[in-house]
Amino acid sequence: xxxxxxxxxxxxxLDTFSIPNQDEVAWFYLDHSNKKQxxxxxxxHQLAKxxxxxxxxxxxxxxxxNEVVLSICSITPNYETVKVNILAAKNYVITIVDxxxxxxxxxLPTLFRExxxxxxxxxxxxxxxxxxxxxxxxxxxxxxxxxLLKLEKxxxxxxxxxxxxxxxxxxxxxxxxxxxxxxxxxxxxxxxxKEDFPFSNDESRFYFQDLESDQSRIISALDTFKExxxxxxxxxxxxxxxxxxxxxxxxxxxxxxxxxxxxxxxLYGMNFEHMPELxxxxxxxxxxxxxxxxxxxxxxxxxxxxxxxKNEQK
Length: 314
What we know:
Blueprint: E1 2-5, E2 10-13, E3 24-30, H1 35-40, H2 46-53, E4 60-63, E5 68-75, E6 81-88, E7 92-97, H3 108-114, H4 122-157, H5 162-182, H6 185-192, H7 202-267, H8 276-279, H9 283-305, H10 310-313
Parallel strand pairs: 3-7
Antiparallel strand pairs: 1-2, 1-3, 4-5, 5-6, 6-7
Helix pairs in contact: 4-7, 5-7, 6-7, 7-9
């Protein structure tokens, strides 16, 4: 528990939780081992205790007579959502984080020690808690952008790699889940930044406006990522089709080259009695020269037209 004393503008760390005095403001990072014991002794509404103990499926705000419970979310380095419950009262804020990411708010004590005035009001503590959760989301968004860029480059390296399509589908499913979880958080931030919100002050409301912009950027980025994944999938299908067409084109050109050669071979292979070339001394060599000459002329024609070879690449 971190306690801010307005009389001397200092903060101190306490090992046990207690309701602060009138001229004090406290932030308590509640551990799961004793959360029920501490919550039970809080002078808050029974429904507030229930909502504080159990994580909500989506971000939301529950307002009561003397306190408010906010449910928000963040993202772990593994791109999984982590749920956070926040209790804001007259002069204290309590934070409970999902067990899979206990170090989510580790930077906050350092921030408060360097600038104790950041704890001067519950609204400012509330802002820093939500802002820290949002920063983790923004960091994850930037990392996801890099991952999708790598995925797009891999399509050009090997468009026939089946793992690319599977990876794109997994990312699409993951991003859909992230968006479903993060989108309602924008409304939570708007509520916390309103003038009639009882646990924020004029100073913190300006910062909540920036958080709204960050949240809009996050939602927009997730939508863009989903569109990019569809583009990656379509790109892979297009490159596959182009590569297949190139193979079929090569096979077709080879077939066209050998078609007249096959005709000549079949013509002189009929073995009719009255075929002068069969008894000609140079007939075999002349037939070979004719066949390979026709094939060479056709291949050269394709090359000049740019249908085959280096001219095709240009």
